[in-house]
Amino acid sequence: MGRTWVPAVGIVAGLVFVLTQLTGSDVDEQAAQTIGTALAVVLFTIFGTAGIALVRWQPRFAPLGVATAMLSLLACGATVALTWTGEPSFFFLIFGGTSGTVAGITDLLALTGATTCVLLATIRPGEDAGSRLSRVASAGALVLFIALAILAIVDHSIDIGPKVYAILATVFVVATAILLVLRLLPLPEDSQAAS
Description:
Elements (H helix, E strand, L loop, with lengths): L1 H20 L5 H31 L4 H23 L4 E2 L3 E2 L1 H25 L7 H26 L7 H23 L3 H7 L1
Antiparallel strand pairs: 1-2
Helix pairs in contact: 2-3, 2-4, 3-4, 4-5, 5-6
């Protein structure tokens, strides 16, 4: 019985929001804030879903999946809150000020967690050393890239050249592409089982 009321309450809340917020002279600003909220919800829902999927597919990595889902929820809340305070933003994700810095770091951590969850979800029994090495290289490059980005956000006096970021990004992209190709190819055990 309780589940049947959830859609009805959601619809009523949506109608109340439209009638109270998306009217009047500030409708353009409020429409932009609403669109920013929708984009944040879509993005961080995808990140959180990656964490939940990892919990189901690879239970041994459940703590990382749960942490990613929680970080995604926090990042979404912070981003939505800053969107509605009227803070100037870049694509509704990067904000100024101390609260914007905290939200930006949380966004980066959620992104790192979600991407790592996707990389770990590709693990399968009997995979070769090349797949494991590609996964480690990809995850390591991503974590180092984000760690340096967070360090640069926290301490503006640290100057990390774009070449360093470009090298790490290249390692991440190449290693991830190799991992995905290897994941699509059958394992030797699969060929033997089929024959």
